Amino acid sequence: RCHHCSPAMLDVPFLPFCAFLGALGLLCVAMVGTWCQHWRGGFSLDGSSRTFNWHPVLMVTGLVVLYGAAALVYRIPNTWSGPKLPWKVLHGSLALGAFILTVLGLEAVFCFHNSQGTPNMYSLHSWMGLATVLLFSCQWAAGFGVFLLPWAPTWLRALYKPIHVFFGSTILMLSVASCVSGINEKLFFSLKNGTMAYKLLPAEAVFANTLGLLILIFGVLVVAALARPNWKRPDSDSPDSRQVQDALGG
């Protein structure tokens, strides 16, 4: 009896889970902003290190938090009935907003590197980050063409949907990995001459490492929500699925 009760006891309703996830995402954004403001000197557009500080803030906000919100749109119970188009537009708009913030974040780091004479694209973090952004752009363009434009055939939507879902989770985890590696790289570069060494774990290192862990937890929870079967939109109720079944003679 305990064996059958334990899953029900551990069951969490979606909306409270989503509220917790939203609070966690806002905490990540607040912490990365606090880190850059308190320890890294704040923000500006003069090409200095304060210009670079826009990079982590925009990347965490766009590539992780806003992208995670876009990924969870179809898990909201209100999306399970009625027309699907408004939710498609919301999903695509959130993803587009995340992409715009990401591009601005890239612009900030390239501007800083160019003004300081620092080479671009030499670290593993930069390679992984740029690959994530390129994959993200392909994902958004393909999703827009297949799911939002009216002339895409239903068989193509049915074929591409699992691919879109798979790469959605993959891009999110790549985004998390890029952000965490970027935080670690920044600490290695910053906590050396004139400051307490990173290996001595100063307050900034503790704060930034905690931020990295929270970003990782956020990403894992989003992927877990996407993988949970009872939080998925019932395919049998969706107009797209009925059209596919009719086309296939189901």
UniProtKB/TrEMBL annotation:
The chain crosses the membrane at residues 14-36, 57-77, 89-112, 124-151, 163-184, 205-227. GO terms for molecular function: metal ion binding; transmembrane ascorbate ferrireductase activity. One of its GO terms (cellular component) is lysosomal membrane. It catalyses: Fe(3+)(out) + L-ascorbate(in) = monodehydro-L-ascorbate radical(in) + Fe(2+)(out) + H(+). It is a multi-pass membrane protein. Residues 20-227 form the Cytochrome b561 domain. Its cofactor is heme b. It is found in: Late endosome membrane; Lysosome membrane. Residues 231-250 are annotated as: Disordered. It comes from the Eukaryota. Its EC number is 7.2.1.3. Keywords: Electron transport, Endosome, Glycoprotein, Heme, Iron, Lysosome, Membrane, Metal-binding, Oxidoreductase, Translocase, Transmembrane, Transmembrane helix, Transport. Transmembrane reductase that uses ascorbate as an electron donor in the cytoplasm and transfers electrons across membranes to reduce iron cations Fe(3+) into Fe(2+) in the lumen of the late endosome and lysosome. Reduced iron can then be extruded from the late endosome and lysosome to the cytoplasm by divalent metal-specific transporters. It is therefore most probably involved in endosomal and lysosomal cellular iron homeostasis. Homodimer. This is Lysosomal membrane ascorbate-dependent ferrireductase CYB561A3. It comes from Pheucticus melanocephalus. The gene is Cyb561a3.
